Amino acid sequence: MILVFIEHKDCVLNKTSLEAITAAQGIGKDLGLKISAVIPCDKDCALAQEISNYDLEKVIMAKNEKLGIYTPDGYTDAWEQVIKATNPTYVIMAHTYQVRDFAPKLAARFGKEVVGDCIRYRNEDGKLVFTRRIFLGKLDADVIIEGDAPYFVTFQSGAFRGDNAEKGGSANIETMDVEVGEIRMKPEAPFQEAKASIDLTKSAIIVAVGRGIKSQENIEKAQELADALGADLAASRPICDAEWLPIDRQIGSSGQTVAPKVYIALGISGAIQHIVGMKNAGTIIAINKDAEAPIFDIADYGIVGDIFDAMPVLVEEIKKAKS
Ligand SMILES: Cc1cc2nc3c(=O)[nH]c(=O)nc-3n(C[C@H](O)[C@H](O)[C@H](O)COP(=O)(O)OP(=O)(O)OC[C@H]3O[C@@H](n4cnc5c(N)ncnc54)[C@H](O)[C@@H]3O)c2cc1C
């Protein structure tokens, strides 16, 4: 069987857990394994019912009064008991801050490693090969896990689509009272991402500029394209670090995560920290003069060329098409 982690705060779902369900369902189909979701909580978790609508065998509520607030000690104790009781082949999780915090500790209790931050997997004759980006996205490494189960795997945010998680089941909800030992941590207030005055998560079209824009003065050329399209302007991190655009325009792992219908990347190389913030866009269009730029790996349409040649032509054509 496969166990999949459902992350929540006060019974409010962290949506990346749906991506983990999608991944687990795919692996389950490939290997003929059933899937159970695990929700650590201090009470009868309000989320259990919602999760039971997905195509899963069971929803296991790992319950203990010490699990009301996340701590690595509490979660590791709870998970250890669920794993010992259910004997899973795979434990699948989304690669969130929380999972990064406790998953290695949990795996170590079983003498195992975590294959973390995977971007995909493939099935080679019943053996799963997991792919991880290494060296800041410059190389992809294929990983095959040797040894006995359980195997711990986390998937990068956006590697699977949460809205592809299959519903249609009516999974049994099972409460498992777990024991939790001493909690040595006293959590502080949760980390808050920088407050955004523009909410790019609601944008239908985004035009994003990267270092290829060369100077702050040139940003108005991208703004013209954004205006022609009725799009919002966004940027990669170096642009915001240089204060050419405010920080709330930054897309990526330390900026906003967006999923517009169309994302136009102008002079953006496609570093993994940028990609995690925009790979769920419906259609990705990249313009870059380097044909080898990683952004083209995820682009639906690409122009290998100079943005300063492409931008005015696009503006002109869009205006023509509108008139
Ligand atoms: C902990 C951490 C967090 C990070 N968080 C983020 C984040 O949230 N968001 C983010 O974006 N980055 C983030 N980064 C930085 C990230 O690693 C990259 O450095 C950054 O995304 C690169 O930005 P870029 O693509 O604009 O620049 P570059 O990588 O320098 O790419 C510029 C691209 O422009 C192209 N180009 C140049 N001139 C032209 C032209 N005239 N026409 C067409 N193409 C041209 C080049 O071929 C190149 O591909 C983070 C890094 C770390 C370590």
What does this structure look like?
There is one protein chain. The chain is an alpha/beta fold and 323 residues long. The protein folds into 2 domains: 2-177, HUPs (Rossmann fold, 3-Layer(aba) Sandwich), CATH 3.40.50; 200-322, TPP-binding domain (Rossmann fold). It contains 9 helices and 16 strands. The chain has helices spanning 16-31, 47-52, 72-86, 97-109, 219-229, 237-241, 272-275, 295-298, 307-322, and strands spanning 2-5, 8-9, 12-13, 35-41, 58-63, 90-94, 114-124, 127-134, 139-144, 151-155, 172-177, 205-209, 232-235, 262-266, 283-288, 301-304. A 9-stranded mixed beta sheet has the order 9-8-7-10-6-1-4-5-11, sandwiched between helices. Strands 13-12-14-15-16 form a 5-stranded parallel beta sheet. A hairpin with a 2-residue loop joins strand 7 (114-124) and strand 8. Helix 3 packs across helix 4 (97-109). It is elongated, with a radius of gyration of 22 Å. The mean pLDDT is 93. The structure holds flavin-adenine dinucleotide (FAD). The site of flavin-adenine dinucleotide (FAD) has 28 residues, from helix 6, helix 7, strand 15 and helix 9. Flavin-adenine dinucleotide (FAD) is lined by residues 136, 210-212, 236-238, 250-255, 267-269, 271, 273-274, 277, 287-290, 293, 306-308.
